[in-house]
């Protein structure tokens, strides 16, 4: 049982967390059909709508907060079925398709592929499995089970079956245009191979096997060729652990009949030219006009490029100082939609808007503008409507549609506005302000400032540090549910009279390559910590802040930097909440076991070990004085639970005041809504007790 003072804080926060959250927006290849996942109080369900009115229809009825996510949402090309996966934790670093059980059910729900008719009807779970791809012509869905390829009928009338069994881990299933073949990747540890399974002849063929990692198979529109990405296989002499390394990659095409391989494009041999870190499931699109489109960072920003499939020079489709993410190729393969952090307002660097570009020329349009945020844009199959997820600084994310015909202002029509509960405190949500300050080495650091409206002359302040670290907090709601939790938490803290500064430190996205991939960061020197300290000192200088009452909190990488702040600068940061943070880089990085059974080691191995240790909060326990609340779930699949157990034992020995909140059987992402309310309610309660006694 939580103490009464904690309950008193948790109950009000529940109102701030009482919002619908929309994700996984998708469209059918034909007509004007869209579908999405909506979560309310942990109840995750699938909704669908069709043009021209786009009236939402609830397709599933999962009525309990069981912590079972819905992912891999798609609509069959004929528009008859919605396919999805229920269960697992697909934001994890490992075991993403292993069952989770935060609701303490006697038998946890196993990760399964499900279908439901688009017009509504009975949900059928076809089989345990993950990563489904639909074949409308075969009325079947292929998916991964036990690291192999399986198939089941969409109607679920007969049992699923294994298509083939091969060495390694199968992934990246892709139906051919005629849906008679299935391309896939077989990862075999130090290399990976692309294969094709002939669904009619029931035979296997290996495509251009090599001593490399081949990935992302992409069919040509006529089905005679594949494009794929090739990277070096693992091995070779160990290189420096403390310097950023080149990550070479190339794009190849292969004629399936002859297995003739052609190098189409080779990334520049620069740090910028390395394979980009992207959230998108693929980075290769064979588009209309026999062109191939891909994302690259080699001009300093994550941009789209196009190149003729016959060879030639690549063309930059999206020039400018902004990033591109969440790319979707239209059904007619003539254009791409995506999210950008640019628009007609300089503050759009801290937002997301929906954009569109042709596959063969740089005619990009930012379709949505203004102070709102829009992400995950998709074109309907008929090309007449752009669907997005839309939010503001106050209103939580909802689906919206924009007619692309006779709509010069790109007016959005929201779907499901009535799903926002009447008790959701829209009027309590403030509009965060952009803040920019300098780090000690001269780097410009961006942050979002949440100011309380209570009229007090001075306020205690809280620095929020996001995780990832390749993330960017925005001037409004975030498109990831984990960071939507944090946004609601920051708003709640502001409502309690705290100034909150949400920092976008180096290692994050949105500000170019050098910001995203700095030297000497993380276990190689923790260069990003100077941004955290600079943010605390910025707060300290503000006339509206009580400089003796500055706290810090964050989760994951933000938990790591919170612990760094408390262990290095307790005089600046008077209290903190460390949520599932990394505390010992030597253990977390696996550096001690990386060279087991090998004679050679990296030339700077000894120095790298020492640097990783000195970049870890546990190396500075002797200077840790500030009280801390440590929160961790013991089914964490991103940061080992022992990272917090170990830290606690060290704090005990040092005599540092600490509190703990252990969440049983939940993961890094608080799959249970009740647990997320408990966690962020505890954050607020801790800071109230520390700074508002």
What is the gist of this entry?
The chain has nine helices and 40 strands.
Outline the structure in words.
This protein has nine helices and 40 strands. Helices cover 15% and strands 34% of the residues. The protein is globular, with a radius of gyration of 25 Å. The strands form nine sheets. The chain has an eight-stranded mixed β-sheet with strand order 33-34-36-35-37-38-39-40, with helices on both faces. The chain is α+β, with helices and mostly antiparallel strands. The two termini are 22 Å apart.
Largest sheet: 8 strands, mixed
The poorly predicted ranges are: 1-10
* Total strands: 40
Query: Structural class of the secondary structure composition?
Result: alpha+beta
**Residue share in helices?**
10-25%
Give me the secondary-structure topology.
Blueprint: H1 4-16, E1 21-27, E2 33-40, E3 43-50, E4 57-58, E5 70-75, E6 81-86, E7 112-117, E8 124-128, E9 130-135, E10 140-145, E11 148-153, E12 161-164, E13 169-175, E14 181-187, E15 192-198, E16 203-207, E17 212-219, E18 225-232, E19 250-255, E20 260-266, E21 285-287, E22 291-296, E23 303-308, E24 315-316, E25 324-329, E26 335-340, E27 353-358, E28 365-366, E29 373-379, E30 385-391, E31 398-403, E32 412-414, E33 433-438, E34 444-450, E35 459-465, H2 481-495, E36 499-504, H3 513-516, H4 529-541, E37 545-555, H5 557-568, E38 575-579, H6 585-589, H7 605-614, E39 628-633, H8 642-654, E40 658-663, H9 673-691
Parallel strand pairs: 35-36, 35-37, 37-38, 38-39, 39-40
Antiparallel strand pairs: 1-2, 2-3, 3-4, 5-6, 6-7, 7-8, 9-10, 10-11, 11-12, 13-14, 14-15, 15-16, 17-18, 18-19, 19-20, 21-22, 22-23, 23-24, 25-26, 26-27, 27-28, 29-30, 30-31, 31-32, 33-34, 34-36
